[in-house]
Amino acid sequence: MIKNNLNHIYGWLLLTPALILMGTFTHLPSFTTLVSSFFSTGTKKFPSKYIGLENYEMIFEDPIFIEAALNNVWYAVATIIPSVFLAILMAVFVDSKIPGRVLVRMAYFTPTILPMIAVSNIWLFFYTPEIGLIDQIAIHLGFSSQNWLGDKDTVLNCLVIITIWKEAGFFMIFYLAALQNIPPELKEAAMLEGSSKIYFFRRITFPLLMPITLFVVINATLNSFKLVDHLFILTKGGPDNASNLILYYIYESAFSFFDFSYAATLTIFLLFILAIISIVQFILFEKRIHYR
Amino acid sequence: MKKYLRNFPIELLSAWILAIFWISPLIYAFWAAFHPNEYAIHFDLLAPLTLSNFFEAWDQAPFARYFLNTFLIVSSILIAQFFICTLAAYAFARFDFLGSKILFAVILIQLMVVPEVLIVENYKIMSNLNLVDSVLGVGLPYMASAFGIFLLRQTFKTIPKELEEAARVEGCKLFGILLRVYVPLAKPTYLAYALVSVSYHWNNFLWPLVITNSVNTRPLTVGLAIFGAPESGVNWSVISAATLLSVSPLLLGFILFQKQFIQSFMYAGIK
Questions:
Q1: pTM for this structure?
Q2: Which value does ipTM take for this structure?
Q3: How many domains is chain A partitioned into structurally?
Q4: Cβ–Cβ of A177/B122 closer than 8 Å?
Q5: pLDDT tens digit string along B233-257?
Q6: CATH code, domain with A214
């Protein structure tokens, strides 16, 4: 340890660049977001004024916001469950000593490193009615053509599928790390006892993967509230807001409708959700440390 | 053992079927990009190969400029992150100063309040700073990264203090110790963080979309989104070519250094 009194000065000096930047672009804007959520958006005729909680009352009466929030919940749940399932399956496959496992792992993981914009461009063509790949196959098999992204009933699930494709391989690597940490003696013992592979997975592997599943689920939930890039290419939130998500609605409110106060109020709501998820994560993480 | 052998082909087969299925959208993009547009939905092994889609994409939009912009954005962010996060992590790892615990908590708030969520207010701040539509404006909100500080602090903490003492006996001062002891020993962490940061910012879209509005600052992702918009009337094969073009450096890097990429993402995620 460097001598005591100078410590305070050095510590603060080393932190100065980080504190200035973070203060300016994280803490200050968080605070001003909160402040502007209590004001109306100023126009030339009506300058911005304090309106208390009126914006908050407005968002809960706004059918678009309610739809976006419900969409977000469905989007999160529908993405996470299949992603986790697929990620475990992929990890088990890659962990077994099959020929060409490096190539298999690469196939699973590659979508993860592509930008969501590129992924959307690729999938856009699959979903295009009539000439798109999915419709081509459907028509070939005798089904009728369907406007997948133009139909309120299918559009959100189209986004779900893309997100699963992009994220499952990312989650796979965490399961893979966990699988490789399972001591081989356990497997040998189970084999001596004559237990089947499926039994071994159910009683040994799966329980050991639980902490990773917690980690993955929380991260996937956070992601589903932060990732809206694909909406810009595929749906723009439509049709009729059937695929709108909260962050996209924030973008629209601010940069299409120029209602900055309303966007600020929506941002506070989103921050509130993220805070709850992070607190849950923190509590669970603390618990895990106690186990060690 | 017998049982194991009997199960083996099933596992092998399903692993490969899933792999082929999983990679097929990307393979398809390659197919469309390297064939004339008539073959976009016509699978014919004898279809003529062509590079004209790539030339057309390159001609129709300023992709060279977008590449330069992305490169400038990604590298300026990475350099600034290394510098800022190293100093901050050093402070938290080795200096016992007034308020260090509270400050660390304050910094970790950024793990939750990510810049993407604050696009509206950050846009206002950038316009006050006159940084709208600048490369610096794209990068600034990301340069002091809580994640980077956290990752480096954890690494610095594992470095034995005896090494620091030894360096001091040799006559190293504050920054000498940081540069000669801590930074070299944290190389794997820097590599992992660099790969994660570069792929994140190469792919980032929302904030750059908000803050840029000209060809001279727009990164590839934003340029690609404009290029691929249905209004632009570009055909499918050319869009595929443009898409592959913009992901090619990252994709190539990943294929060549697959192991490092996967280990870095794993390492950065689990910390």
A1: 0.88
A2: 0.87
A3: 1
A4: no
A5: 668 888 889 999 999 999 999 988 8
A6: 1.10.3720.10
pLDDT tens, residue by residue, A200-231: 888 878 888 888 888 888 888 888 998 899 99
Does B61 lie at the interface with A, CB-CB under 8 angstroms? no
Distance of CA B240 to the CA centre of its chain: 21
Q: Which residues pair with A39 in a beta bridge?
A: A50
Kindly tell me the burial class for residue B203, based on how many C-beta atoms sit within 10 Å of its own C-beta (0-12, 13-18, 19 or more). buried
B167 is a domain residue: yes
* Measured distance CA(B90)–CA(B147) in Å, rounded: 14
Distance from the A90 Cα atom to the nearest Cα atom in chain B, whole angstroms: 7
Q: Could you tell me the two tokens for A284?
A: 């669970």
Domain that holds residue B251: 63-270
Instruction: Extract long-range pairs of B40-44: CB within 8 Å, 24+ residues apart.
Output: B40/A125, B40/B235, B40/B236, B40/B237, B40/B240, B41/A131, B41/A133, B41/A136
Determine whether the interchain pair A100/B16 forms a contact, defined as Cβ–Cβ distance below 8 Å: yes
- Cα–Cα distance list, A104 to A90, A118, A166, A200, A263 (Å): 9, 22, 15, 23, 44
Reported in sequence order, the residue ranges of B122-236 that DSSP labels E, i.e. its strands, are none
Q: Is A39 helix (H, G, I), strand (E, B) or coil?
A: strand
Q: In which domain, by residue range, is A194 found?
A: 55-291
